[in-house]
Structure formats: structure tokens, C-alpha cells
What we know:
Order of helices and strands: HHEEEEEEEEEEHEHEHEEHHEEHH
Number of domains: 2
Distance between the termini: 24 Å
Radius of gyration: 23 Å
CATH architecture of the largest domain: 3-Layer(aba) Sandwich
Strand content: 15-25%
Number of strands: 16
Number of helices: 9
Amino acid sequence: MNDGVVFDIIKAMKITRRNLLKITGFSVLAASVLPRVAFAARNSLRSLRTGVQPGNKTRLVIETSMRPSYSLSYPAGQLVVNIANTAANTSVVAKLASDGLVKSISQTQNGDGLQIIANLKKSIAQIPKSGVMILEPNGDNDYRLVLDFIAGTTGTTANDTYTTTSATATTAITAARKYVIVVDAGHGGKDPGCIGKGGTREKDIVLSVAKKLKNKLDANGFKTYLTRDGDKYLKLADRAAIAEKRKADLFISLHANANPSRQMKGFSIYTLSEKASDEEAKKLAEAENAADKIGVEGFTEFEENIRIALSSLQQHAVAEMSEEYATGCAKSFKRASIEQQPGPDVRHAPFAVLRSTVPGALLELGHLSNVAEEKLLKTSSHQDKLVAAIVKSVKNYNFEV
């Protein structure tokens, strides 16, 4: 079945990537990273309107056909809203309240995204999270991104940028359900993982980081589970099964690396693919794997051709969402000045622990084979730095698309 037919099916059934993963409670062999189906521009603009709220707040409402993922920026005299993967709609005429701060609104297509520019009577400060809401469809309304703001630039500069996703905004405003994160400390028990020259065991380092990460994620409003909270051996398939059982929204597997070259150091991030992105990724996956596989089940209520399409789409959805998280995580590590192993930001390999319907990534936190990095990984301060970067990557991840 080609991508065109698959995409026609997903449009006809109005399935988002996240909803696709929830159609049935089944497991899937994420056999390959399929060619990227054109999810871009699947969202579209429905309406634009402004009003005035108590306290002289201007309210801008942007209605879209699907839940928006957006960013905000504040050039002098403007509010700019960028909505990812959204098509412009030139038939939409903005309805403006005469006594609000918005004097005109324009829209333009910017690649796959939609840019909405509100020209203001007065400049505004960065809109706090309390001034942002995403409303679910209701009656004749589709999804609505609601922005409340007042005049004044106190506490910010004209060019400050505030970027968020639908997930962070929804969590902050509507007290939505807690997103479930499963953190997997690799190895354990009879499997020590790699061992540094100084005797540092991988299983001990990653468990320490995992426990710290759970505490920080819980403190930030997530519901976090560990695959192990002690020195326990688990099969790789069991680790993936824990994520499935907990109905996790994200799976993070923590590891520390080893390399024949004692000079090699830095973090690396991997997502699942049957074909490794490079020889090193292939060897690493072979070292980590126990050939457990999760078979495709479910979709029995659909006709065979639909089942085939949905199975392929689910595999694609998991791969795409995993890639998005991994890419954001790499950025978070680099912004925290954590050294990266030379090579691409995200690598791909057939890790058994990632075979799941849950989006996820495997994080190699550093190299125990490098003497300096072995010492660094043992320090509480560096572990805290790693945890802070991972927490930021989770908070920035768009759970809802």
C-alpha cells in the first residue's frame, strides 16, 4: 500500500498520530522507520477573532481544525503566532473588536507552518502561561488557541520570544491529565552493562540518574514510573512491556556508552529503526539487544486493508514522535553545554528495548570508557545537569499532536 493511499485513509478516519496509538491496546513490532507520510499542513485555519475581557485584556482567538502546536514572538507593535503544520486560509476574515489592542491581522504561509501577525495599537509584554489556553472542540467550534494580553512591555523586551507547545499550555491552564513517563535504567542485576577503567558500572550510574529524573519529572507535574528502582535484572521485552502496561506517553531508556577508542566521549541519542544509521549504532544495538520482539496484534474490528494501513501508520507515528522527542532532547543537552559525541544529533538502530507502541528514545549519557568522562558521570553535579536537560526536553515535547 503506497503512502498516498495510507494518507487518504488517515484523513478519512480523522486520526491524529496520538489517537492512532490509542485505537486499540495492542503491541506492535516497530519494524522500520517508514517513509514520512505527509502529516505536514494537515491542520487548517478556521477563524480569527478578538474581544475584550475584564481588566482591559484583549483576547485573540485562533480557531483551527486540529489541536495547534505553536510559538509566540513579540516584535515591536506586533504579536506573531506561528502554528506548525497548518495551512493558511485566505477566505478567513478576522473579526476585530473595536476597543481591543489589535488593529489588524494578516496571515501568511511560512513553509509548512502558518504565521499570523496581529498589528497592535500598543506593544505588549510576553504573554504568561496563565494567559494562554487551548480549548477543545465544542458545538460548532473546533480547537481554539486563546491568548489574553494587555498593553505594556514591563519585564520583557520587544524581541523576546516565548515558545511552547499545545502540551505545555494545556497542562498549565486546564489541569489536564498528567502525562505518563516511563524511565528505564538500563542493565541491572547480573548484567552490569559496560564497566569503566575505574570500576564504575553502567547499571549503577543510570539507576542513580533515573531516580533523580523521576523525582524531578514528578515535581514538574508528570507521572513517572521506573522500570527498576533497584539492582534488578529485566529482559528488554519486559522493559518495553512496562511502558505498555503503564500506558506511557513517553519512554526514556538511560545508558552509558563504551568505545574502543578511549578518547571518544559525549552523549548520543538513538531511536528505533531496523536499519542502523551507521556501523557504530549497529554494533551498539547488537551489544544492548536480546532478540525479543513484540508481535503485531489488534485492529480486528477493521477490514484487512484498513488493518494493514493502521498498523503501518502506527509504526510510522511511533517513529515520527520518537524522532521529535530525540531531536528536542539533543538540543536540550547541547543548550546545557553537555558535550556531544561527534556525529549526528539523533542516530537510529534496532534496539529491542524500544520496540513498543510508546514513543521513546535511548540516551547514552556519556562514555565510561573515557577516564575523564567516567569520573564526571559519577559526580552528583553532572548527573543533576543531565537530569535538568532531560526534564526540559520532556517539558518541551509536544505530547498532543
